[in-house]
Design a protein that fits this description.
5-stranded mixed β-sheet; single chain; alpha+beta; elongated; Tetrahydropterin Synthase, Chain A
Length: 133
């Protein structure tokens, strides 16, 4: 089995805030992230599969890039994550965002299986999901 990873970047803003909490509780739980702020995210999408004997690819990386850009980057880049449909009703943490990205991609990749989605919120912080429930 081979594993291929494509990295893409996007910039977005969010605010970690739960309306049912007081301002003090929001600030206690989410700290400075309870304020409006933004990140330059990096998303890594890894697929797995076998080499197609005709193309000698698991998947053409241009195809994978197009799928990620059309389904993820176009919906997230320069957006306010609290308002986007794929996170409706959820606090836009990196954990919730990586799950939403997985759900958007899981049935859209031909000839390969989605293996993992890794989201770097900062240089030092990332979250990865491999489809386990």
């Amino acid at each position: 089995m081979l594993y291929l990873t494509r990295r893409e970047k996007f910039s977005a803003a969010h605010r970690l805030w739960k309306d049912s909490f007081s301002q003090e509780k929001n600030e206690d739980i989410y700290c400075e992230c309870s304020n409006f702020h933004g990140h330059n995210y990096v998303v890594e999408v890894t697929v797995k599969g076998k080499i197609n004997p005709e193309s000698n690819f698991v998947i053409n990386l241009k195809t994978l890039s197009r799928i990620i850009r059309e389904n993820i980057i176009s919906n997230l880049d320069h957006k306010f994550l609290n308002d986007i449909e794929m996170l409706k009703g959820k606090i836009p943490t990196s954990e919730n965002l990586v799950l939403a990205i997985w759900d958007e991609l899981k049935d859209k990749i031909p000839d390969a299986e989605l293996f993992s989605v890794k989201l770097h919120e900062t240089e030092n912080n990332c979250v990865e999901y491999k489809g386990e429930k």
